């Protein structure tokens, strides 16, 4: 059904734009994934852009739901702010993060002081917004590279600047400028020229701009018009079209020696701390993009040391929703000479409760999903993590009894897409550590799953935390502020202090024997608790070893595993 044309951009037009962009990216997702060769050929740009816009659209719908009649609809500023915030918190991957900043730039321009609660903006306002969007995105990237989505965004803004007329006219000019710039990207970026494709992120932006044109003019841009294939002149075998300034000069990677991990997280921090964080992450890796502001940021970087990237975020402020992806060696850093994309044979996906464990699991080769207290991941997030693992066979470790059904639903989604998934019902991160310790990708899948399941099942688990309120437990009545020791999910000990309670829990667990004690210490636990427990094991339990990990902000003060 055709949209009703309008000469201005208002709240309803933004809502329509989000819906159309989401639908268009859904249709183009696989095509965009297939041409993704830069900065890493991991084949997920279309999916990441779709998930980013999905988050923006959800936020916009929530604003409209909160303004149901008779109170009237939301103003333009409310909807633009929601769109930008939704994209920021839901941004995925390099291109999704940049798109979030483009939307934030538009929102900033159209909600600047003086705009007030204006119900709509005209062509001049849209021109200003597109320019601010392009500039904001370029400022967010540590080392901008031409021939990417940044180039396409700048071209869209340039074309809009030259257009006179209403919002529909400006949007159409921006779209045409972006499409022309997209067609030229293989001549600007050698990795694209070698692969014979246009930039995937730029292709996604052209799709989003086509949706804006349709929202404002009522006319859909034909699907074939959105595709800008590489022309023969844009190929790298034409030396006159090979740029002197290659990505390597911009701090980015296109060869086989690129970083091993993608790290993404949301961060609550001040501007000064983020400035220092940019410098530290820039020294650790590449493809650094930090977007956001006003205390909330989305951080994206490719590094070899995922733990160091997360620790840098902890030093800067409060990171959460941490996602760490291990790039499979066979699937990335192909320098643009991209054969049909092969999946890794086997991967592990794990849900982890804290930043420290996220780094530990990632260094062991697992794809991680961070679960914050009160914010368990949905099945869609787990399904996306299974896709990010990009393997024929995946072992899924939910590490939480309450996630069993959510994980099973995600596994079914992946199986429907042709992935062989084994769900090991780990109920704690320490059981996941035990399973990961015996994981051997060279073994037959069934044998590997049996060994990992056996290791997890042989690990008793406990956690120590502080009671938030008075309540009945299996160990009696606890009061707010009491320290609770849970063994295998049930409250077994109620005590006045952490160390004493933890010692009692550990003693009870070791009564049945054990060879290895694993301690995962949270940020809020006293520095001395690990030392006290290690000393107790040495003094009271011969031939029992202890390992200690820092879990970060993991919800529990302490996790204990006994194998």
Strand content: 15-25%
Mean pLDDT, rounded to whole units? 85
Largest β-sheet summary: 8 strands, mixed
Q: How many β-strand runs?
A: 18
Low-confidence blocks of residues: 229-256, 329-341
Rg: 26 Å
Distance between the amino and carboxyl termini: 62 Å
Number of helices: 18
User: Helix- and strand-based class?
Assistant: alpha+beta
Strand arrangement, major sheet:
4-5-3-6-8-7-9-10
Helix content: 40-55%
Shape, please? elongated
Brief sketch in words of this structure:
By secondary structure, this protein is α+β, with helices and mostly antiparallel strands. It contains 18 helices and 18 strands.
Topology summary:
Blueprint: E1 9-10, H1 11-34, H2 45-65, H3 76-90, H4 93-110, E2 120-121, H5 123-140, H6 149-161, H7 167-188, H8 190-195, H9 200-217, E3 261-268, H10 271-284, E4 285-293, E5 296-303, H11 306-316, E6 318-326, E7 344-352, H12 355-363, E8 367-370, H13 379-389, E9 391-397, H14 404-416, E10 420-423, H15 429-437, H16 445-457, E11 460-466, E12 471-473, E13 476-478, E14 483-487, E15 490-495, H17 498-510, E16 516-522, H18 529-540, E17 545-552, E18 558-562
Write up what this structure looks like.
With 563 residues, this protein is α+β, with helices and mostly antiparallel strands. 46% of the residues lie in helices and 19% in strands. The protein has 18 helices and 18 strands. The chain has helices at residues 11-34, 45-65, 76-90, 93-110, 123-140, 149-161, 167-188, 190-195, 200-217, 271-284, 306-316, 355-363, 379-389, 404-416, 429-437, 445-457, 498-510, 529-540, and strands spanning 9-10, 120-121, 261-268, 285-293, 296-303, 318-326, 344-352, 367-370, 391-397, 420-423, 460-466, 471-473, 476-478, 483-487, 490-495, 516-522, 545-552, 558-562. The strands form four sheets. It has an eight-stranded mixed sheet with strand order 4-5-3-6-8-7-9-10, with helices on both faces. The chain has a six-stranded mixed sheet with strand order 15-14-11-18-16-17, sandwiched between helices. The chain has a two-stranded antiparallel sheet with strand order 1-2. Strand 16 (516-522), helix 18 (529-540) and strand 17 (545-552) form a beta-alpha-beta unit. Helix 1 (11-34) packs parallel to helix 3 (76-90) and helix 5 packs parallel to helix 7 (167-188). It is elongated and about 80 Å long. Residues 229-256 and 329-341 have low confidence and may be disordered.
């Amino acid at each position: 059904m055709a949209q009703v044309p309008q000469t201005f951009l208002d709240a309803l037009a933004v809502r329509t734009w989000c819906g159309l962009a989401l639908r268009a990216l859904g249709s183009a997702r696989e095509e965009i994934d297939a041409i993704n060769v830069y900065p890493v050929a991991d084949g997920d740009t279309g999916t990441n852009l779709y998930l980013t816009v999905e988050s923006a659209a959800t936020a916009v719908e929530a604003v409209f739901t909160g303004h149901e009649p008779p109170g009237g609809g939301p103003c333009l500023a409310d909807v633009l702010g929601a769109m930008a915030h939704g994209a920021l918190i839901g941004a995925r991957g390099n291109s999704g993060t940049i798109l979030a900043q483009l939307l934030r730039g538009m929102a900033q321009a159209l909600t600047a002081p003086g705009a007030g609660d204006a119900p709509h903006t005209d062509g001049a306002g849209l021109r200003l917004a597109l320019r601010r969007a392009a500039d904001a995105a370029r400022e967010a990237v540590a080392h901008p590279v031409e021939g990417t989505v940044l180039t396409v965004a700048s071209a869209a803004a340039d074309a809009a600047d030259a257009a006179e007329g209403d919002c529909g006219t400006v949007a159409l000019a921006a779209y045409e400028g972006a499409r022309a710039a997209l067609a030229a990207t293989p001549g600007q970026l050698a990795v694209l020229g070698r692969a014979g494709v246009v930039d995937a992120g730029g292709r996604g932006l052209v799709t989003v701009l086509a949706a804006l044109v349709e929202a404002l003019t009522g006319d859909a841009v034909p699907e074939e018009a959105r595709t800008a294939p590489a022309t023969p002149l844009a190929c790298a075998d034409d030396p006159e079209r090979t740029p002197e300034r290659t990505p390597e000069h911009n701090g980015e990677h296109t060869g086989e020696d690129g970083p091993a991990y993608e790290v993404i997280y949301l961060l609550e921090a001040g501007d000064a701390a983020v400035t220092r964080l940019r410098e530290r992450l820039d020294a650790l890796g590449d493809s650094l993009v930090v977007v956001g502001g006003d205390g909330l940021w989305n951080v994206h970087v490719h590094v070899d040391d995922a733990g160091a990237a997360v620790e840098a975020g902890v030093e800067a402020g409060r990171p959460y929703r941490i996602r760490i992806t291990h790039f499979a060696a066979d699937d990335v850093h192909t320098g643009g000479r991209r054969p049909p994309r092969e999946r890794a044979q086997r991967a592990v996906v794990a849900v982890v409760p804290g930043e420290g464990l996220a780094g530990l699991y990632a260094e062991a080769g697992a794809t991680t999903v961070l679960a914050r207290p009160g914010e368990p991941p949905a099945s869609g997030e787990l399904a996306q993590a299974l896709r990010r693992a990009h393997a024929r066979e995946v072992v899924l470790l939910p590490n939480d009894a309450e996630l069993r059904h959510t994980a099973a639903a995600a596994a079914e989604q992946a199986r429907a897409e042709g992935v062989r998934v084994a769900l090991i019902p780990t109920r704690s991160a320490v059981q996941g550590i035990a399973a990961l310790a015996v994981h051997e990708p060279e073994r037959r899948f069934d044998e590997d799953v049996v060994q990992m399941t056996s290791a997890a099942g042989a690990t008793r688990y406990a956690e120590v935390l502080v009671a938030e309120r008075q309540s009945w437990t299996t160990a009696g009545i606890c009061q707010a502020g009491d320290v609770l020791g849970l063994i295998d999910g049930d409250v077994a000990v109620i005590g006045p202090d952490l160390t004493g309670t933890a010692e009692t829990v550990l003693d009870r667990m070791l009564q049945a024997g054990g060879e290895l004690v694993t301690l995962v210490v949270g940020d809020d636990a006293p520095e001395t608790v690990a030392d006290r427990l290690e000393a107790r094991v040495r003094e009271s339990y011969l031939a029992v070893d202890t390992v200690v990990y820092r879990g970060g902000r993991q919800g529990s003060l302490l996790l204990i595993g006994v194998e």
